[in-house]
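Our working data are protein records whose layout never changes between entries. An example says more than a description, so a record of this kind follows.
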Amino acid sequence: MEEESKELISLTKKLFIEETDHELPEHVRTRDMRYTDFKVFARGGVCMIQSCKDNYLGRIVCHKSLRKEFVDSKEERVRFLREARVTAMLQHPNTIPVYDISRDNRGRYFFTMKLLHGHTLHGIFEKLKESDAEIAHEFKLNRLLGAFIQVANALDYAHEHGVIHRDIKPMNVAIGRYGEVHLIDWGLAQVGHKNDPPMTEQEMKAATMNAPTDFRLTRAGQLNATPLYMSPEQVNRVLNLDARSDIYSLGTVLYEILTLENMIEGKTVQEVMDNISHGRFKAPSERTPDRKVPRELEEICLKCVESNPDNRYQTVSDLIDDIRQFREASLEH
């Protein structure tokens, strides 16, 4: 029994493109009356997000589908399937449970998942800037750091499974009304191939130069992630990112927790990208001196966002340890 358990763990350790990107069989379709009472509550650049009733299980769920102008795009369909499967396969308390993936009666892909209620971290920041008394009382620094640790836990788990998120930003952190925290939107995730041999430095350079025309590249590789939170490697179109790219993006979120300001400034996308590439930004304590940013947290933040990946935290778990140590020390005083 113990041997079977070990074998199962080894089989599910890593996620691979062969498991995330393949088409659904043609016969997989959902009967018309399973999902009803649709209400649109968000329209993304590519997807439509609705609430609906699952009549089989008697509950309200989140229904995500491609917008009609993208349903015939093979590239977008593959990305959509990857998002659904990566989200489903990363079974962690801080990722969203996926319930179903199928085609509707017109043959269009959709998947259903837990319907979230509450705030995004971005929404919390906006209300804090407006001096919203209720939000300010509810989301003090210690609680925001607790939410940050939960996001980092989800990311650490994903990295162990070979997945790089590539779109970490406050809008992709959801905090529920009962304190639950979810890292969402895995649509730009990088997943490897089962039999990919290590690339030589020369091959990496050649692949990076050809990156914009590589079909398998997700939108993050083509600078369609949110520029303000992208790592220098993403800006410079490095093909195969590693965990340290996500760590940089986590650092930009921590910067915003400390300052309520975007770390990178710029009037144009190009200026923002140049500032990221050259590490041009103010330290948190310099950016907002009136907020009295704790020195230890500033040091943690600045280590995350080093331009050279070798100078950052090398694993998310090391970052989590330092944040926890700060919280414990602050509670003692």
